[in-house]
């Protein structure tokens, strides 16, 4: 029977978490894994892989497909499809309760596929596992659950009580009942194993990837190049805001732009939960202004209304805000005591990669990370990183792989300790230039960092291949033949 006559086996990916927020680690995971699955299945089909020749990807959401999904379908029209999970792509029904939507969709897919599917739930927990009548025992082997971290368990004060209670209940039930459980780092796998010590099945690790744009171009070496790049970044930022209809959002004179360009640029990327520690970082950067005559520009990318409100409160106490008001979603700027805080709600990857190239250091004070995308993105781009020890971030590269000021951990939540760590990079008294000279000789920063850091290449293909190998394992005889064929 021809493969076209065989019923497809669907990998159903719940992409609700990746509709727009690219700075969420969860969104990056959903998008990166989905794109890599399309690429891996296309490669396997060209190689006539019998195990996955009829496997296809079905992206499921609650409304119209996001742009990245449309582009993926256009690239692999025979392998990737999209369904709104309802009667039409623009449906407004079934918004709440959340578990009713996913449970109903899962049952429909069970019926339509004849049981030939895996439901890939990329959130920390998914509502089909809420109760037995919503998830019969027969369905458990169809659910592939990804639990990204244990933050709500380890940092309870950073989460609402009911969310923390839900998380604890559902994660423990997931670990107790579902055979296919994945996470994104060895650190998270070890923490989850402690949550469910009686679990007999393994907790698999899907290695997250980093988009190829990060580290594809060299860092700027000369003062002239760096100044031009920073000016271009500010102009693009202003232009993007102007296109949103806020033409007066950042009115800067030429002298003001020159002043921003001359400052030392410290960047922090991530949302504004309490455990992220942005208050500590902001206090540390504020203290740096007394150490550096040129002053410091602290650029915060990501966040939410809490971050905006914090910036607004700070401006009311210490400085004068310019730019969009606190209700805007683009950016706000706060000046105080010679320093400047620029808060940007979101950046496309090309602008974020450009920001990494022309900044001086990335600060990442988060006390908990299941993976931690920004530190790896920055390091691959050749940007020094100061991060909080005791999280998954510390396991991304082998110990002592780099110059000690390039990849630097801080075992503290006190602003003076972060100030000292950042200052060691910005004053560069320990020969960091030699490390950059070596990096400049490489093809690009990414290849240099990957080679020096232990050889991990941070490609999404590693995650998709790991997932496919676990869900569609080779028979023991095939494994033996493959091993014998190796030179």
What does this structure look like?
Helices cover 42% and strands 15% of the residues. By secondary structure, the protein is of the alpha/beta class. The strands form 2 sheets. The chain has an 8-stranded mixed sheet with strand order 10-11-12-9-8-13-14-15, sandwiched between helices. The chain has a 7-stranded parallel sheet with strand order 3-2-1-4-5-6-7, with helices on both faces. Helix 1 (25-46) packs across helix 16, helix 7 (223-243) packs across helix 8 and helix 9 (278-288) crosses helix 13 (415-427). The longest helix is centred in the N-terminal third of the chain and has 22 residues, at 25-46. Mean pLDDT is 83; it is low at 88-92, 128-133, 305-329 and 477-487.
As laid out across the biggest beta sheet, the strand order is: 10-11-12-9-8-13-14-15
| Alpha carbon gyration radius | 24 Å
* Continuous helix count: 17
Helix content: 40-55%
Described by the principal axes of the CA atoms, the overall outline is globular
Main sheet overview = 8 strands, mixed
Strand residues, percent: 5-15%
Average of the residue pLDDT scores = 83
Distance between the termini: 34 Å
Structural class comes to: alpha/beta
Unreliable stretches: 88-92, 128-133, 305-329, 477-487
- Counting DSSP E segments of at least 2 residues, the number of strands comes to 15
